[in-house]
Amino acid sequence: MSQQWQSKLQNACQKMQMPPPKFHVVSDRRGGRTAWSCRVEVNGQLIDARFWFDGKNLENAKEDAAEVALNHIISTTSPSSASSRHSIW
């Protein structure tokens, strides 16, 4: 299973001299099943994944959270650091 977004997020945090991201798995009982998702803590801020997954696809929840967090980091960097945005990828 690829961890492409998690790696990109880890690298971006390192380049921006932020603490490494911390992933928090969350669950929600829905009828007879449990749905799983993930939150990632980046620089003290919790960012939720967009989607909920079956337990066997928990890695997808982490990837989703990492993608959302990375996009958040990129969108909140100052315009003066636009050239450094491209180096995150």
List the helices and strands and how they pair.
Elements: H1 4-15, E1 22-30, E2 33-42, E3 45-48, H2 58-76, H3 82-88
Antiparallel strand pairs: 1-2, 2-3
Helix pairs in contact: 1-2
InterPro entries: dsRBD_dom
Pfam families: dsrm
Domain DRBM: 7-72
The count of β-strands is: 3
Which CATH architecture is right?
A: 2-Layer Sandwich
Kindly provide the radius of gyration, computed on alpha-carbon positions and rounded to a whole number of angstroms: 14 Å
CATH topology: Double Stranded RNA Binding Domain
Strand content: 25-35%
Largest sheet: 3 strands, antiparallel
Helix and strand element order: HEEEHH
Distance between the termini: 20 Å
Count helical runs: 3
State the low-pLDDT regions, or none: 81-86
- Helix percentage range: 40-55%
Output mean pLDDT. Answer: 88
Report the CATH C-level class: Alpha Beta
What is the count of distinct domains? 1
Q: Biggest sheet: strands side by side, in what order?
A: 1-2-3
Structural class: alpha+beta
Shape: elongated
Structure description:
This is DRBM domain-containing protein. InterPro entries: dsRBD_dom. It comes from Pseudoneurospora amorphoporcata. This protein is an alpha+beta fold and 89 residues long. It has one domain: Double Stranded RNA Binding Domain (2-Layer Sandwich), CATH 3.30.160.20. The protein has three helices and three strands; from the N terminus they run H-E-E-E-H-H. It has a three-stranded antiparallel beta sheet with strand order 1-2-3, with helices on one face. Strand 2 and strand 3 form a beta hairpin. The longest helix has 19 residues. The chain is elongated, with a radius of gyration of 14 Å.
